[in-house]
Amino acid sequence: RGQLMFRPALLILSGNAAASVLLLARNLIVARLISVEDYGVAATFAIAMAVVEMMSTLGLQQQIVQSKDGDDPRFQAGLQGFQVLRGLIAAALLFVSAGAIANFLGIPEVAWAYQVMALVPVFNALQHFDIHRLNRQMRFWPVVLTGAVPALVSLAAVWPLYHLFGDYRVMLWAIILQITLMMVVSHLVAERPYRLVFDRAIMAGSLRFGWPLLVNGILLFAVFNGDKLIIGRVLGMETLAIFAMGITLTLTPTLVMAKSAQNFFLPQLSKAVNDPQRFGHLARVTLQVGLLNGGLLLIGIVLFGGPFVTAVLGDKYAALIPLLIWLALAQALRVFKAGP
Length: 340
Description:
mainly alpha, globular
Protein backbone atom coordinates (compact mmCIF):
# COMPACT_ATOMS: atom_id res chain seq x y z
CA ARG A 1 0.00 0.00 0.00
CA GLY A 2 2.89 2.33 0.80
CA GLN A 3 4.33 1.90 -2.69
CA LEU A 4 0.90 2.50 -4.25
CA MET A 5 0.55 5.79 -2.34
CA PHE A 6 4.14 6.85 -3.04
CA ARG A 7 3.67 6.86 -6.82
CA PRO A 8 0.84 9.41 -6.98
CA ALA A 9 2.60 11.52 -4.35
CA LEU A 10 5.76 11.55 -6.48
CA LEU A 11 3.72 12.34 -9.61
CA ILE A 12 1.99 15.30 -7.95
CA LEU A 13 5.21 16.68 -6.50
CA SER A 14 7.17 16.28 -9.75
CA GLY A 15 4.31 17.66 -11.85
CA ASN A 16 3.74 20.71 -9.66
CA ALA A 17 7.50 21.22 -9.37
CA ALA A 18 7.93 21.00 -13.15
CA ALA A 19 5.30 23.66 -13.82
CA SER A 20 6.62 25.92 -11.07
CA VAL A 21 10.26 25.52 -12.11
CA LEU A 22 9.35 26.34 -15.71
CA LEU A 23 7.49 29.48 -14.65
CA LEU A 24 10.31 30.44 -12.29
CA ALA A 25 12.77 30.00 -15.17
CA ARG A 26 10.54 32.19 -17.34
CA ASN A 27 10.47 34.93 -14.70
CA LEU A 28 14.23 34.74 -14.14
CA ILE A 29 14.98 34.93 -17.87
CA VAL A 30 12.62 37.89 -18.30
CA ALA A 31 14.25 39.62 -15.30
CA ARG A 32 17.69 39.04 -16.79
CA LEU A 33 16.70 40.31 -20.24
CA ILE A 34 14.69 43.45 -19.45
CA SER A 35 15.54 46.41 -17.23
CA VAL A 36 14.92 46.27 -13.47
CA GLU A 37 12.27 48.99 -13.78
CA ASP A 38 10.44 47.09 -16.53
CA TYR A 39 10.49 43.94 -14.39
CA GLY A 40 8.89 45.98 -11.62
CA VAL A 41 6.07 46.86 -14.03
CA ALA A 42 5.78 43.18 -14.98
CA ALA A 43 5.53 42.29 -11.28
CA THR A 44 2.45 44.50 -10.96
CA PHE A 45 0.56 42.15 -13.30
CA ALA A 46 0.68 39.51 -10.57
CA ILE A 47 -0.67 42.08 -8.10
CA ALA A 48 -3.55 42.92 -10.45
CA MET A 49 -4.43 39.24 -10.74
CA ALA A 50 -4.21 38.81 -6.97
CA VAL A 51 -6.80 41.58 -6.58
CA VAL A 52 -9.16 39.67 -8.87
CA GLU A 53 -8.55 36.32 -7.15
CA MET A 54 -9.01 37.94 -3.73
CA MET A 55 -12.48 39.14 -4.72
CA SER A 56 -13.59 35.81 -6.18
CA THR A 57 -11.93 32.99 -4.23
CA LEU A 58 -14.59 30.39 -3.44
CA GLY A 59 -12.63 27.11 -3.61
CA LEU A 60 -14.77 25.53 -6.34
CA GLN A 61 -11.90 23.25 -7.40
CA GLN A 62 -11.56 21.97 -3.83
CA GLN A 63 -15.32 21.56 -3.57
CA ILE A 64 -15.56 19.10 -6.45
CA VAL A 65 -12.91 16.97 -4.71
CA GLN A 66 -14.45 17.17 -1.23
CA SER A 67 -18.18 17.07 -1.94
CA LYS A 68 -20.11 13.78 -1.82
CA ASP A 69 -21.71 14.93 -5.10
CA GLY A 70 -18.35 15.53 -6.77
CA ASP A 71 -18.85 12.74 -9.34
CA ASP A 72 -22.36 13.91 -10.32
CA PRO A 73 -22.21 15.37 -13.88
CA ARG A 74 -24.88 17.99 -13.10
CA PHE A 75 -23.07 19.11 -9.96
CA GLN A 76 -19.85 19.47 -11.98
CA ALA A 77 -21.68 21.43 -14.68
CA GLY A 78 -23.16 23.67 -11.97
CA LEU A 79 -19.72 24.40 -10.53
CA GLN A 80 -18.40 25.11 -14.03
CA GLY A 81 -21.30 27.46 -14.67
CA PHE A 82 -20.69 29.29 -11.41
CA GLN A 83 -16.97 29.45 -12.24
CA VAL A 84 -17.68 31.08 -15.61
CA LEU A 85 -20.03 33.61 -14.00
CA ARG A 86 -17.37 34.38 -11.37
CA GLY A 87 -14.69 34.75 -14.05
CA LEU A 88 -16.75 37.19 -16.11
CA ILE A 89 -17.44 39.36 -13.06
CA ALA A 90 -13.76 39.31 -12.09
CA ALA A 91 -12.74 40.25 -15.65
CA ALA A 92 -15.18 43.15 -15.72
CA LEU A 93 -13.89 44.42 -12.36
CA LEU A 94 -10.28 44.27 -13.53
CA PHE A 95 -11.09 45.94 -16.85
CA VAL A 96 -12.92 48.90 -15.31
CA SER A 97 -10.36 49.34 -12.51
CA ALA A 98 -7.32 49.14 -14.81
CA GLY A 99 -6.87 52.90 -14.95
CA ALA A 100 -7.20 53.30 -11.18
CA ILE A 101 -4.61 50.56 -10.53
CA ALA A 102 -2.14 52.09 -13.00
CA ASN A 103 -2.61 55.58 -11.55
CA PHE A 104 -2.20 54.33 -7.97
CA LEU A 105 1.13 52.72 -8.89
CA GLY A 106 2.31 55.82 -10.76
CA ILE A 107 2.41 54.12 -14.18
CA PRO A 108 -0.73 55.41 -15.98
CA GLU A 109 0.73 54.48 -19.38
CA VAL A 110 0.38 50.78 -18.46
CA ALA A 111 -3.41 50.87 -17.93
CA TRP A 112 -4.00 49.17 -21.30
CA ALA A 113 -1.96 46.15 -20.13
CA TYR A 114 -4.22 45.66 -17.09
CA GLN A 115 -7.20 45.73 -19.44
CA VAL A 116 -5.58 42.96 -21.50
CA MET A 117 -5.01 41.04 -18.25
CA ALA A 118 -8.80 40.96 -17.85
CA LEU A 119 -8.68 38.02 -20.30
CA VAL A 120 -6.94 35.91 -17.65
CA PRO A 121 -9.90 35.35 -15.28
CA VAL A 122 -12.12 34.55 -18.28
CA PHE A 123 -9.78 31.87 -19.64
CA ASN A 124 -9.18 30.56 -16.12
CA ALA A 125 -12.93 30.23 -15.61
CA LEU A 126 -13.35 28.27 -18.84
CA GLN A 127 -11.08 25.44 -17.66
CA HIS A 128 -12.68 21.99 -17.53
CA PHE A 129 -13.26 20.76 -13.96
CA ASP A 130 -12.59 17.15 -14.94
CA ILE A 131 -8.91 17.75 -14.13
CA HIS A 132 -9.97 18.28 -10.49
CA ARG A 133 -12.73 15.67 -10.38
CA LEU A 134 -10.31 12.92 -11.43
CA ASN A 135 -8.24 13.68 -8.30
CA ARG A 136 -11.02 11.89 -6.39
CA GLN A 137 -9.81 8.70 -8.06
CA MET A 138 -6.17 9.55 -7.33
CA ARG A 139 -5.64 10.25 -11.05
CA PHE A 140 -3.40 13.29 -11.27
CA TRP A 141 -2.00 13.27 -14.83
CA PRO A 142 -4.70 15.62 -16.20
CA VAL A 143 -4.04 18.35 -13.63
CA VAL A 144 -0.26 17.88 -13.97
CA LEU A 145 -0.36 18.25 -17.76
CA THR A 146 -2.66 21.26 -17.51
CA GLY A 147 -0.02 23.01 -15.44
CA ALA A 148 3.22 21.81 -17.02
CA VAL A 149 2.58 21.97 -20.78
CA PRO A 150 1.42 25.64 -20.88
CA ALA A 151 4.30 26.61 -18.58
CA LEU A 152 6.79 25.02 -20.99
CA VAL A 153 5.30 26.82 -24.01
CA SER A 154 5.23 30.12 -22.10
CA LEU A 155 8.92 29.70 -21.27
CA ALA A 156 9.78 28.89 -24.89
CA ALA A 157 7.95 32.03 -26.03
CA VAL A 158 10.07 34.42 -23.95
CA TRP A 159 12.94 34.76 -26.43
CA PRO A 160 10.79 35.61 -29.52
CA LEU A 161 8.63 37.93 -27.37
CA TYR A 162 11.76 39.72 -26.14
CA HIS A 163 12.93 40.31 -29.71
CA LEU A 164 9.44 41.54 -30.57
CA PHE A 165 8.89 43.89 -27.59
CA GLY A 166 12.00 44.10 -25.37
CA ASP A 167 10.19 45.41 -22.27
CA TYR A 168 7.48 44.48 -19.72
CA ARG A 169 5.19 43.37 -22.56
CA VAL A 170 7.24 40.16 -22.75
CA MET A 171 5.73 39.08 -19.43
CA LEU A 172 2.25 40.27 -20.34
CA TRP A 173 1.95 38.14 -23.47
CA ALA A 174 3.76 35.18 -21.89
CA ILE A 175 1.09 35.13 -19.16
CA ILE A 176 -1.76 35.42 -21.68
CA LEU A 177 -0.30 32.54 -23.71
CA GLN A 178 0.09 30.36 -20.62
CA ILE A 179 -3.47 30.90 -19.35
CA THR A 180 -4.96 30.33 -22.80
CA LEU A 181 -3.13 27.01 -23.17
CA MET A 182 -4.16 25.93 -19.66
CA MET A 183 -7.78 26.28 -20.74
CA VAL A 184 -7.16 24.34 -23.97
CA VAL A 185 -5.21 21.51 -22.32
CA SER A 186 -7.81 21.08 -19.56
CA HIS A 187 -10.41 20.32 -22.27
CA LEU A 188 -8.08 18.02 -24.22
CA VAL A 189 -7.39 15.77 -21.19
CA ALA A 190 -10.99 15.76 -19.90
CA GLU A 191 -13.17 12.65 -20.07
CA ARG A 192 -16.63 14.20 -19.82
CA PRO A 193 -18.21 16.66 -22.26
CA TYR A 194 -18.00 20.26 -21.10
CA ARG A 195 -21.35 21.54 -19.85
CA LEU A 196 -22.49 24.68 -18.05
CA VAL A 197 -25.47 24.77 -15.72
CA PHE A 198 -26.53 27.87 -13.79
CA ASP A 199 -28.20 26.30 -10.74
CA ARG A 200 -29.08 28.61 -7.85
CA ALA A 201 -28.96 25.78 -5.32
CA ILE A 202 -25.44 24.78 -6.36
CA MET A 203 -24.32 28.41 -6.35
CA ALA A 204 -25.78 28.92 -2.86
CA GLY A 205 -24.04 25.78 -1.63
CA SER A 206 -20.78 26.94 -3.17
CA LEU A 207 -21.09 30.30 -1.43
CA ARG A 208 -21.66 28.56 1.91
CA PHE A 209 -18.63 26.37 1.24
CA GLY A 210 -16.44 29.17 -0.05
CA TRP A 211 -17.13 32.24 2.11
CA PRO A 212 -14.41 31.34 4.66
CA LEU A 213 -11.98 30.94 1.76
CA LEU A 214 -13.07 34.33 0.42
CA VAL A 215 -12.36 35.97 3.80
CA ASN A 216 -9.05 34.12 3.96
CA GLY A 217 -8.22 35.32 0.42
CA ILE A 218 -8.79 38.95 1.42
CA LEU A 219 -6.52 38.56 4.45
CA LEU A 220 -3.83 36.80 2.40
CA PHE A 221 -3.95 39.53 -0.23
CA ALA A 222 -3.35 42.13 2.46
CA VAL A 223 -0.46 40.09 3.88
CA PHE A 224 1.26 39.11 0.63
CA ASN A 225 0.44 41.93 -1.77
CA GLY A 226 -0.30 44.95 0.41
CA ASP A 227 3.42 45.43 0.94
CA LYS A 228 4.06 45.29 -2.81
CA LEU A 229 1.42 47.94 -3.45
CA ILE A 230 3.03 50.23 -0.89
CA ILE A 231 6.53 49.61 -2.24
CA GLY A 232 5.44 50.19 -5.84
CA ARG A 233 3.59 53.42 -5.01
CA VAL A 234 6.11 54.91 -2.55
CA LEU A 235 9.51 53.55 -3.63
CA GLY A 236 8.99 52.97 -7.36
CA MET A 237 9.24 50.14 -9.87
CA GLU A 238 12.94 49.32 -9.41
CA THR A 239 12.56 48.68 -5.68
CA LEU A 240 9.38 46.73 -6.35
CA ALA A 241 11.30 44.57 -8.84
CA ILE A 242 13.93 43.67 -6.20
CA PHE A 243 11.30 42.85 -3.59
CA ALA A 244 9.03 40.95 -6.02
CA MET A 245 11.95 38.81 -7.21
CA GLY A 246 12.73 37.92 -3.59
CA ILE A 247 9.13 36.88 -3.04
CA THR A 248 9.20 34.83 -6.24
CA LEU A 249 12.35 32.95 -5.28
CA THR A 250 11.07 32.07 -1.82
CA LEU A 251 7.36 31.70 -2.59
CA THR A 252 7.68 29.34 -5.58
CA PRO A 253 9.02 26.34 -3.61
CA THR A 254 6.46 27.09 -0.89
CA LEU A 255 3.59 26.90 -3.38
CA VAL A 256 4.94 23.69 -4.92
CA MET A 257 5.10 22.03 -1.51
CA ALA A 258 1.72 23.29 -0.29
CA LYS A 259 -0.12 22.53 -3.53
CA SER A 260 1.37 19.04 -3.77
CA ALA A 261 0.41 18.27 -0.17
CA GLN A 262 -3.11 19.54 -0.78
CA ASN A 263 -3.58 17.55 -3.99
CA PHE A 264 -2.31 14.38 -2.34
CA PHE A 265 -3.96 14.55 1.09
CA LEU A 266 -7.30 16.28 0.38
CA PRO A 267 -8.91 13.32 -1.48
CA GLN A 268 -7.75 10.93 1.26
CA LEU A 269 -8.94 13.16 4.09
CA SER A 270 -12.31 13.55 2.35
CA LYS A 271 -12.76 9.77 2.08
CA ALA A 272 -11.71 9.21 5.71
CA VAL A 273 -13.97 11.86 7.23
CA ASN A 274 -16.20 9.18 8.82
CA ASP A 275 -13.25 7.11 10.09
CA PRO A 276 -11.83 9.05 13.07
CA GLN A 277 -8.78 6.83 13.50
CA ARG A 278 -7.64 7.03 9.87
CA PHE A 279 -8.59 10.71 9.60
CA GLY A 280 -6.57 11.52 12.72
CA HIS A 281 -3.54 9.67 11.36
CA LEU A 282 -3.76 11.46 8.00
CA ALA A 283 -4.22 14.81 9.74
CA ARG A 284 -1.06 14.32 11.81
CA VAL A 285 0.92 13.32 8.73
CA THR A 286 -0.38 16.38 6.87
CA LEU A 287 0.75 18.66 9.69
CA GLN A 288 4.17 17.01 9.78
CA VAL A 289 4.60 17.41 6.01
CA GLY A 290 3.90 21.15 6.34
CA LEU A 291 6.55 21.51 9.05
CA LEU A 292 9.08 19.49 7.04
CA ASN A 293 8.46 21.53 3.88
CA GLY A 294 9.01 24.84 5.69
CA GLY A 295 12.24 23.62 7.27
CA LEU A 296 13.64 22.37 3.97
CA LEU A 297 12.81 25.69 2.28
CA LEU A 298 14.63 27.71 4.92
CA ILE A 299 17.73 25.50 4.84
CA GLY A 300 17.87 25.65 1.03
CA ILE A 301 17.67 29.45 0.89
CA VAL A 302 20.28 29.87 3.64
CA LEU A 303 22.75 27.61 1.78
CA PHE A 304 22.12 28.49 -1.85
CA GLY A 305 20.07 31.71 -2.09
CA GLY A 306 22.86 34.28 -2.38
CA PRO A 307 25.04 32.38 -4.88
CA PHE A 308 21.95 31.62 -6.99
CA VAL A 309 20.95 35.30 -7.26
CA THR A 310 24.49 36.32 -8.21
CA ALA A 311 24.89 33.59 -10.83
CA VAL A 312 21.47 33.88 -12.48
CA LEU A 313 20.42 37.53 -12.16
CA GLY A 314 23.77 39.31 -11.98
CA ASP A 315 24.81 42.46 -10.14
CA LYS A 316 21.64 44.43 -10.86
CA TYR A 317 19.80 42.32 -8.23
CA ALA A 318 22.61 42.37 -5.61
CA ALA A 319 20.40 44.39 -3.23
CA LEU A 320 18.16 41.32 -2.91
CA ILE A 321 20.73 39.04 -1.24
CA PRO A 322 20.51 40.49 2.33
CA LEU A 323 16.70 40.15 2.22
CA LEU A 324 16.51 36.50 1.15
CA ILE A 325 16.81 34.81 4.56
CA TRP A 326 14.10 37.04 6.06
CA LEU A 327 11.77 36.37 3.12
CA ALA A 328 12.49 32.63 3.36
CA LEU A 329 11.64 32.68 7.06
CA ALA A 330 8.32 34.35 6.29
CA GLN A 331 7.50 31.76 3.62
CA ALA A 332 8.54 28.89 5.90
CA LEU A 333 6.01 30.11 8.46
CA ARG A 334 3.47 30.32 5.65
CA VAL A 335 3.99 26.72 4.54
CA PHE A 336 3.74 25.53 8.17
CA LYS A 337 0.04 26.41 8.04
CA ALA A 338 -0.60 24.45 4.83
CA GLY A 339 -1.29 21.35 6.97
CA PRO A 340 -4.03 22.90 9.09
